């Protein structure tokens, strides 16, 4: 498993659906560098069971992300047209109608591979022919990318395990707190709490006030 934290987020240009109904070509996260934070998340496939709950949950909290200067971008190995079709399907029929943030297409599997969330990999059989071993889908990876294009947080779940949107927001709050105040955020830190100075005195002071 590659750890991308502290590194520049892998770049790409691909098809995507934006605003819930518009297919665009050459979509890239680079458009946000210097302007926005990005929550970039992968899910296994369109028209499945756990996936719509996640995509809808991110949309339901989109105002929270926007208030923090964060854009949300989803990704799977499906085509942009498949995304578009799913976005037109009502939620009570298993669709994600109402989701407005961009969803990118990774049909080549290269983006999932570069972020190291691909559930399988290419190999060769005994005849020397290219084969794919495992599932040609992405695990539930999530990456928080700062305004400089650097990955600051990542988490990867197996396919049956849905993620916590609240935890994604908490980590954003922690990142923005430490950027603003230069203090670190201890275990279970939440917005509104103080941080601590990364010194022995700072830690001792924090512990004395937290008990």
Elements, N to C (H/E) = EEEHHEHEHEEEEHH
Q: What top-tier CATH class of the largest domain fits best?
A: Alpha Beta
User: From the coordinates shown, what is the CATH architecture of the largest domain?
Assistant: 3-Layer(aba) Sandwich
Count of β-strands: 9
Give the name of the CATH superfamily of the largest domain.
Glutaredoxin
| Count of discrete domains | 2
* Structural class by SSE content: alpha+beta
**Percentage of residues in DSSP E strands:** 15-25%
Average pLDDT figure = 89
| Main beta sheet | 7 strands, mixed
> Stretches where pLDDT falls below 50 for ≥5 residues?
199-204
- Beginning-to-end CA distance, first to last residue: 37 Å
Structure report:
The chain has 211 residues and is of the alpha+beta class. It folds into 2 domains: 149 residues, Glutaredoxin (3-Layer(aba) Sandwich); 48 residues, no CATH class. It contains 6 helices and 9 strands; from the N terminus they run βββααβαβαββββαα. The longest helix has 17 residues. It is globular and about 60 Å long. About 3% of the residues have low confidence. Keywords: Cytoplasm, Disulfide bond, Oxidoreductase, Peroxidase, Redox-active center. Belongs to the peroxiredoxin family. AhpC/Prx1 subfamily. It is found in: Cytoplasm. This is Thioredoxin peroxidase.
How do you describe this structure in short?
The protein is an alpha+beta fold and 211 residues long.
Give the helix/strand layout:
Elements: E1 14-18, E2 22-27, E3 37-42, H1 50-60, H2 62-67, E4 70-76, H3 80-87, E5 103-105, H4 110-114, E6 121-124, E7 130-133, E8 140-145, E9 151-157, H5 165-181, H6 200-209
Parallel strand pairs: 3-4, 4-5
Antiparallel strand pairs: 1-2, 1-5, 3-8, 6-7, 8-9
Protein name: Thioredoxin peroxidase
Family: Belongs to the peroxiredoxin family. AhpC/Prx1 subfamily.
Main location: cytoplasm
